[in-house]
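Re-run with default settings, no changes from the original entry. Doing this only to confirm the output is reproducible before filing.
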Amino acid sequence: MARYYDKAQLTDLTIICGDQEIQCHKLIVCAQSSFFRAKCLGGFLVGVVRLEDAHPGLIRMMLEFLYTQKYIVTEDDIVTYNDLCNISRIQILLFRLGEQYQIPTLCNYMSKCLRRRLNSDGLVMDEHFDCVALVYGGIPERNQTLRSILIDALMAYHGRILQDKATEKTFLSLLEAHREFRDDAVRALIFVDSDARPDWD
């Protein structure tokens, strides 16, 4: 499938998002997405699917994953789409696209990538805090996967937070602004040294 990505030959599906039209193959996209399969088999205009308010860059990343079964978010993506801020944010948004367009393989892949990213030694904590604001500050999550990853990462380095006044201040602001994050963090800290720690998933 990978060899057909970004190739115009035999494309039979046009995805329109914003002012961009993206050509792809129904067989590849619909085989992995219940959303697109329903669209293409329903009463909509044959061969065209409009995605209102979708970010064209994220849709292109999603499609590359469908063709190749992988997508490594890099700093180049941030340069190309500078409104997406950081790598972890892109991974979260791709996970949400997987939920929205019913692509479980994309959700599973991005959750693993995000967990690795947030637990990497060189991660700047501001990136993690940005993820907290994105996940806990938006629409309620349909499942707890993203929240679980964020809390697990917090537990891995929570001792560092108090070592820097600016970081501590940002963290306390997050606790104040997002009650559910505060509740999840408190529960995790209570069980951090206990086998009784709950299963966040």
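The longest strand covers residues 13-17. The chain has a mean pLDDT of 86.
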